[in-house]
Amino acid sequence: MSFHCKMCNLLFLLILIFAGSALYGETETTDAQTIIDRAIEAHGGKHYLASRINFDFRDRHYVSERSGGIFHYQRIFSDSSGRVNDHLTNEGFFREVNNEKIDLSEEWQSKYANSVNSVIYFALLPYALNDPAVQKRYLGTGIIRDEKYHEIEVTFRQEDGGKDYEDVFVYWIHQEKNTMDYLAYEFHTDGGGTRFREAFNQREVNNIIFADYHNYKGPQPGVDLATFDTLFQAGKLKKASEIVLENVTVTLLEN
After folding, report:
1. Which residue, 24, 33, 76, 210, has most beta carbons within 10 Å?
2. What is the pTM (predicted TM-score) of this model?
3. Pairing verdict, β 193-205 and 208-217
4. What is the CATH number of domain 30-252?
């Protein structure tokens, strides 16, 4: 067979491979950024960028509003002082009590801002995984309940990484559905610890997917987070709580 014919056959084979991949939707990748992009798209994509999201969590009402790069988070509840409304925006944090702005020390502003941001961060996952401070690393693949997952580690740069920039996360992204179904993390506040979360009651509300979570207490910090799926399936993680979002509503806005 001539060199020319061999090249023709090779070219034909490559065409068949690419055509087959397109036909059957084979989009296997080990690029962490690509996998996270697909997960964000599967969960809501562009709809996160211009939306007003309301939900209740543990007797507090939360509002997340985003439009044109501007965000406004709120936490609303009542206590002995009256009606409390916490606000976190691009400009910073402030608190109102009975519709009057009150003075807070920088320490308490930071604590309250971190608390509000943490709840909304988890509620809107995986949207925040493309924030500027996020560093992503592909760890490999895993199988949980007979389903195949990509494992992605997330750490944070100190600059723009917030108070908890030293926290470490591992996310399990379904290889076909691109959904984020499990996560593990190590945190350092309040003495530190580890957690593993299993999503349930995943539902779509006006083009954005939300989930509740079974929340498990993990081993002491230092144990490889990527092994938590194995520990979970072996029944070695103790359930600590449930993370349940109630009364979720989504209003899509115009940029």
Report:
1. 210
2. 0.85
3. antiparallel
4. 2.50.20
